[in-house]
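Now for a typical sample entry:
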Amino acid sequence: MQTIKTDIVLDARGLACPMPIVRTKKTMKTLEPGQVVEVQATDKGSTADLRAWANSTGNQYLGTIEEGDVLRHYVRKASGNDQEAPAFQKVVNNETVEAVRGNADTMILDVRETAEYAFSHIPSAVNIPLGELEERIEELDSSKTIYVVCRTGNRSDLACQQLDAKGFNVQNVVPGMSDWKYDTNQTV
């Protein structure tokens, strides 16, 4: 196996979303433009999360190498100013989503990983993990208002930015499933 030169190695093993991204953001502030960080993570969702975060901030997601249960992600700091991902402006709370759930002109999109969705999700929510969103976008109905939910609002923010850029009417649900107090379903 070829050795990949990095400027810093960040250990995010054992951390769940959103911590690998939080730690990566903090580490990126210490790097010079063009330097590369290797983020070691065990959270399977970290691949899609880091790719989406890097793209939204102008940094370059280089790729991921899987070694056993460790994912080695490589991200290159953008040349010039390290920009912070702008937060998506259209935000609603859980109560709003509960009130519109089941309306014919709305859709609830859950962008968490399939395992998260399987154990607890909003009834009628459609699951498309963030990392699959680009390739499965045709499954979404552009005539509906789409309420995008994840665990805390971070992945859904990134999904909203992607979908908004493609002309979808989207709302980011915050705080999302971490504080959902209404009915849920499970598929396991």
In short: Strands lie at 8-12, 36-41, 60-67, 70-76, 91-92, 106-110, 126-127, 145-149, 169-173. Residues 8-76 form a domain with the Translation Initiation Factor IF3 fold (CATH 3.30.110.40). The two ends are 38 Å apart (CA to CA).
